[in-house]
Amino acid sequence: MSKEEEGLSLVEIHGRGRALVASQPLRGGQIVLRDSPILLYPAFPLVSVDESSHYCSHCFKKLEPERVVQVSVSCPDCSLERFCSPNCASSAVSSSHSPWLCQSLLLIRRHSSSLSLSLDLQLQARFLLAAYNLALLNPSHFQTLLSLQGDSTAIGDETPRFLHSLISSVCATPPPPVGWFSLELSAALLGKDKLNAFGLMEPFSENAPRSVRAYGIYPKASSFNHDCLPNACRFDYVDSDNTDMVVRMIHDVPQGREICLSYFPVNQNYASRQRRLMEDYGFACDCDRCKVEAQWSDNDDNEEEQQEEQQEEEEEELMEEDVDQTMEAEAEGEAGSAEPEFPHAYFFVRYMCNRNNCWGTLAPLPPSSTTTPLIVVNVNDNDNVNVNVNVNVMECNVCGNLKNDDHT
Ligand SMILES: C[S@@+](CC[C@H](N)C(=O)[O-])C[C@H]1O[C@@H](n2cnc3c(N)ncnc32)[C@H](O)[C@@H]1O
Fold first, then answer.
1. pLDDT tens across the length of the chain (408 residues)
2. Beta bridge partners of 83
3. Which of 14, 26, 28, 150 is the most exposed place for a label (fewest CB within 10 A)?
4. 305 is a domain residue
5. Which atom of ligand 1 is nearest to the CA of 282?
């Protein structure tokens, strides 16, 4: 285990499978995991040459228009994939864009333009090719992929059958290694993708829905279970750094507590959370927030509106009270001291980004960043604010805004 993972232990929890729990008390902002993907694939259609030309096909950094002309390199064989540098191009040949994958993508692209495949199918085809490419190039990472949760039951019969026969009939040489390629394996792999793929998102914009740039399989982060009020959240810095994922604690937790992410933005209502978790991940969520919200009488058609109203009212009430005590108790795990009707309202006030349409989660900067004697952060794009050692700076994992934590 690396230093950054020292605070986590992998355990088995009945009804939840593998889980990560705090093996020591963890502090808000603490980095508990840094994970690199074993497999990445683009989130745009197979046939969309236009979109793919905006990103490096290896490191997924955005190619600024001037860089496309000056320094980017095209794959000499398919000329469809672009790389941000000769280095990325040469790394790709032995990994993400091997000659086998290059050839297979080319053939599938030709074929699928006449099939008008849905975007979902195109992305699943991309994943399958990337997974078989991994089997060829890195058998140990492929075994890791196979060890993740998810099998053919997560995906049904029709999609694997269709994609498997598409790949078999189109690819010049069967996916490697010889003898591995089978319908059962393809179905199991698609199940792994469904339960474990993380989206690397486009930068946030207030005016457009946020889209996914690429999907990745992060083997260690795949052990985090979901909670609708997570105590940790993930960050990535694809354009400024690399495709690694960093998981930071949102607030302090005691030793023994399970560390969970939310698999989607925390603002969704009870019914849509339950639907999504059942359809996409195959479980009914029974977290503390769901237990409370399941009792609400407004879980009907217009529940979204009603919940939002109720939430707003509760949040306002709570903000008017002296809420610090409530949350501090909750952060330390003293359940029961919060409002019985809506014990998690404080989470939204303190840990949900209030920027328009963002719905990101706020986590303190890692402790080392806040021990700098004086740092200047940009809050809400406009004001430069001096932040000193005693102030917690919270970072949004969606829009990247930095904000003073008024509750410290
Ligand atoms: C990414 S995996 C998480 C790790 C997984 N528990 C394992 O054993 O590898 C996602 C799967 O974990 C399980 N899971 C995640 N959160 C859960 C929760 N809150 N309650 C029950 N099962 C959960 C579901 O089976 C889900 O499809």
1. 555 567 999 999 999 999 999 999 999 999 999 999 999 999 999 876 566 578 999 999 999 776 666 678 999 999 889 999 999 999 999 999 999 999 999 999 888 777 888 999 999 999 999 999 999 999 999 999 999 999 999 899 999 999 999 998 888 777 766 677 899 999 999 999 999 999 999 999 998 888 999 999 999 999 999 999 999 999 999 999 999 999 999 999 999 999 999 999 999 999 999 999 999 999 999 999 999 999 987 665 555 555 555 555 444 443 333 333 333 344 344 334 444 556 688 899 999 999 999 999 999 999 875 444 333 344 444 444 444 444 589 999 999 999 998 766
2. 73
3. 14
4. no
5. 27
Nearest-CA neighbor of 49 among 121, 103, 129, 106?
Answer: 106
Show the ligand 1 pocket: residues with CB < 6 angstroms.
15-19, 149, 195-196, 222-223, 225-226, 281-283, 285
The DSSP result for 34-53, as a single string, is EE--SEEEESS-TT-HHHHT
With tokens 């994939």, the residue in question is 81
Identify whether the C-beta of residue 397 lies closer than 8 Å to the C-beta of residue 235: yes
Its ipTM equals 1.00
Q: Are 47 and 190 part of one and the same domain?
A: yes
Say if residue 29 is in the same domain as residue 91.
Answer: no
The answer to whether position 381 is within a domain reads: yes
Contacts of 111 by beta carbon, 8 Å cutoff, 6+ apart? 166, 170
Nearest ligand 1 atom, CA 222: 1
List beta partners, residue 258: 21
Task: Tell me whether residue 208 is in a domain.
Answer: no
- Tell me the pairing of strands 82-83 and 393-396: unpaired
Instruction: List Cβ<8 Å contacts ≥24 apart for 208-212.
Output: 210/398, 211/43, 212/43
Same domain, 374 and 240: yes
Ligand 1: atom nearest CA of 150 is 27
Q: How far is the CA of 160 from the centre of ligand 1 (A)?
A: 22
47 residue type, one letter: V
Q: Whose CA is nearest to atom 27 of ligand 1?
A: 281
| Tokens standing for residue 111 | 């074929």
Q: If you measure from the C-alpha of residue 176 to the centroid of ligand 1, how many angstroms do you get, rounded to a whole number? A: 30
Instruction: Please give the distance, rounded to the nearest whole angstrom, from the Cα atom of residue 129 to the centre of ligand 1.
Output: 25
Q: Which tokens go with 181?
A: 């390629």
- The answer to pTM > 0.90 is no
Q: Which of 147, 218, 281 to mutate to test the pocket of ligand 1 (most atoms within 8 A of CB)?
A: 281
